[in-house]
């Protein structure tokens, strides 16, 4: 049996199944069916190396810890956190390291409702280094004003900001773009609702591959239904 926290495990994991693991994990989270993570055992399993199946760019908001939101344990996720889940060179380098050199199978950008960075950008706040960061969110505010689509949560700027970050990653990183086009990684955009814990996986660019089987939630014993 292949150990979860190993190079062999990542090599056999498909991008679509990695996406399903995030989907399933959030389902457990919102239903309070958390996995029993043995932290001491996980420390022992990961002491010689790390093999996270996903890399997630999210906001620094204290309510949006991705390990909790997706019910994952030590060594399961690369978590990149910055106010407003914006993209810069250091973040691109971190993502490239995760997918190319470690082998993470899915890249996710996760925004959230009631984002303080978005609210500050809307208010036009300028102060110290915040000025440059909030300026990066302004295009999302404009984009949301022109967006007539309906979303699960009523926060169009949060959705637009995730889309803009995804577009910037694919535009600026040849490594990520090439791996995505070669179906080596999947890409997902989501928005987390701070009021109920649910993630809207509104943009899933991850292709289902031959051999992918539907995961069964071991907590509820119910098969996941995916659109």
Q: Please tally the β strands and state the result.
A: 7
Overall structural domain count:
1
CATH architectural arrangement: 3-Layer(aba) Sandwich
Helix content: 40-55%
Looking at the chains present, what oligomeric state does this protein adopt? single chain
What fold name stands as the CATH topology?
Answer: Beta-carbonic Anhydrase, Chain A
- Mean pLDDT equals 90
CATH superfamily: Carbonic anhydrase
Q: Which series of helices and strands comes N to C?
A: HHHEHEHEHHHHHEEEE
Query: Could you tell me the radius of gyration in angstroms?
Result: 17 Å
Top-tier CATH class: Alpha Beta
Strand content: 5-15%
- The N- and C-terminal alpha carbons lie at a distance of 31 Å
Could you explain the architecture of this structure?
It is built from ten helices and seven strands. The model is unreliable at 216-227 (pLDDT under 50). It has helices at residues 7-12, 15-30, 39-46, 66-69, 89-102, 116-122, 130-135, 138-145, 156-172, 174-181; strands at 54-58, 77-81, 106-112, 186-192, 199-204, 216-217, 222-223. The chain has a single domain (7-208), classed as Carbonic anhydrase (Beta-carbonic Anhydrase, Chain A). It is globular and about 50 Å long. The chain is an alpha/beta fold and 227 residues long. The strands form two sheets. Strands 2-1-3-4-5 form a five-stranded mixed beta sheet, with helices on both faces. A two-stranded antiparallel sheet has the order 6-7.
């Amino acid at each position: 049996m292949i150990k979860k926290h190993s190079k062999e495990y990542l090599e056999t994991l498909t991008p679509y199944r990695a996406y399903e693991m995030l989907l399933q994990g959030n389902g457990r989270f919102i239903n309070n069916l958390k996995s029993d993570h043995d932290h001491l055992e996980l420390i022992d399993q990961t002491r010689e190396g790390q093999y996270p199946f996903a890399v997630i760019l999210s906001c620094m908001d204290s309510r949006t810890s991705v390990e909790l939101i997706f019910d994952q344990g030590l060594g399961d996720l690369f978590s990149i956190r910055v106010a407003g889940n914006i993209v810069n060179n250091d973040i691109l380098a971190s993502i490239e390291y995760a997918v190319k050199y470690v082998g993470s199978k899915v890249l996710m950008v996760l925004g959230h409702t009631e984002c303080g960075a978005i609210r500050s950008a809307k208010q036009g706040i300028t102060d110290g280094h915040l000025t440059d960061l909030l300026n990066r969110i302004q295009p999302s505010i404009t984009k949301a004003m022109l967006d007539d689509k309906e979303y699960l949560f009523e926060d169009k700027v949060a959705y637009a900001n995730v889309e803009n970050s995804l577009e910037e990653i694919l535009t600026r990183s040849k490594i990520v773009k090439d791996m995505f086009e070669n179906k080596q990684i999947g890409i997902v955009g989501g928005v987390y609702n701070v009021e109920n814990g649910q993630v809207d996986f509104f943009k899933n660019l991850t292709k289902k591959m031959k051999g992918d089987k539907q995961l069964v939630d071991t907590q509820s014993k119910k098969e996941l239904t995916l659109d």
